[in-house]
Amino acid sequence: xxxxxxxxxxxxxxxxxxxxxxxxxxxxxxxxxxxxxxxxxxxxxxxxxxxxxxxxxxxxxxxxxxxxxxxxxxxxxxxxxxxxxxxxxxxxxxxxxxxxxxxxxxxxxxxxxxxxxxxxxxxxxxxxxxxxxxxxxxxxxxxxxxxxxxxxxxxxxxxxxxxxxxxxxxxxxxxxxxxxxxxxxxxxxxxxxxxxxxxxxxxxxxxxxxxxxxxxxxxxxxxxxxxxxxxxxxxxxxxxxxxxxxxxxxxxxxxxxxx
Amino acid sequence: xxxxxxxxxxxxxxxxxxxxxxxxxxxxxxxxxxxxxxxxxxxxxxxxxxxxxxxxxxxxxxxxxxxxxxxxxxxxxxxxxxxxxxxxxxxxxxxxxxxxxxxxxxxxxxxxxxxxxxxxxxxxxxxxxxx
Lengths: 259, 131
Ligand code: SF4
Ligand code: SF4
Ligand code: SF4
Ligand code: SF4
Prior knowledge:
The complex is a heterodimer. By secondary structure, chain A is of the alpha/beta class. Chain A is 43% helix and 12% strand. In chain A, strand 1 (2-6), helix 1 and strand 2 (32-35) form a beta-alpha-beta unit. By secondary structure, chain B is mainly alpha-helical. Helices cover 50% and strands 0% of the residues of chain B. Chain B is built from eight helices and no strands. Chain B has helices spanning 4-17, 29-33, 44-53, 56-60, 73-77, 85-96, 109-112, 119-129. The A-B interface holds A 8-10, 13-15, 41, 43-52, 55, 75, 77, 150-151, 154-156, 164-165, 189-190, 192-199, 202, 206, 226-228, 230-231, 234-235 and B 15-18, 35-36, 39, 67, 69-73, 75-77, 85-86, 89-90, 93, 104, 112, 114, 116-125, 127-128. The structure holds iron/sulfur cluster (4 copies). One iron/sulfur cluster (SF4) binds at residues 76, 149-151, 190-191, 193, 226, 228-229 of chain A. One iron/sulfur cluster binds next to helix 5 and helix 6 of chain B.
């Protein structure tokens, strides 16, 4: 099976591992991620105002270019921006009209493309049972705290990925690769996000609470799908830190495709 | 809410955000869950209340508009589906859309960087602070 793939700007630079292991693991599971031609950065945050058009065009372009199949993203933030943009194209007629008038696509776009986060691909297309069956090196005995952060799941009614207050997709993923999930009460609280640019103290406080909670619950390591979460947890959280990995790296390790 | 300018601003914020402040029952849950609570002069539930009152200029002048992390916690957890973050966003846009009103200036950027910081952080800050 071939899916369109939107890697995002950070996965081409600081978060190369998130991208590289996502592709290698997908291949091992029978899925090819075909990178879109000429995709542009989504901007990292969805601008919530209805009258804001320009900042959403790169996402619409990626969506419209994928309408013959489905679009896969792996960065939490890209996933958030692209799904929210798709929802607006589908449900906000005035916004969609303005965008379509501006873009002059061969055929107007109205949110037809199905968007998958990579984890949804594993759960809904491959199936976590099939992932488990393909595991060659189970991560036995590893206690892993899933860190959802905020952008992977919220707003829940738009992203429709999992229950935003009591999610299980990452825990199911952890079980599929043979490890044991550890549930931390801070798994869906914010790490401080982009505020790390101008307010390091805030990022330290927020990411520190997330890290400390995972430590207290007895985790050996944490996983995330977001480059900014990984940065805040590894760089800005104070004190002793657990290692933090992209979930795709552990997947590649379990599937035996990590060089 | 008295003068025509405030009324116009209020209507603009409501149109941009799609939020109906009258749905709010002032339970304060949005502010209770906000990760930026300590950094804010006006908290999410106050944005809702003050927009309803038409006090938009006061909000526009407050540094609170640059403290929202866009974490969607208040959007998710509001029992009345008010979506306070959308008001913060609309008011922030009213400010940065004004000429010369960018919160982040290009010459400030090098000082904010370190070797590990992902593009995502900067790209997002740009989106939130500049036009
Ligand atoms: S979310 Fe990030 S990584 Fe993804 S494209 Fe947008 S800015 Fe770049
Ligand atoms: S970086 Fe922090 S702000 Fe972004 S998704 Fe991760 S948790 Fe949320
Ligand atoms: S959570 Fe919702 S109803 Fe409660 S104060 Fe905030 S906006 Fe109003
Ligand atoms: S979206 Fe903004 S206002 Fe709402 S809880 Fe998060 S930081 Fe606070």
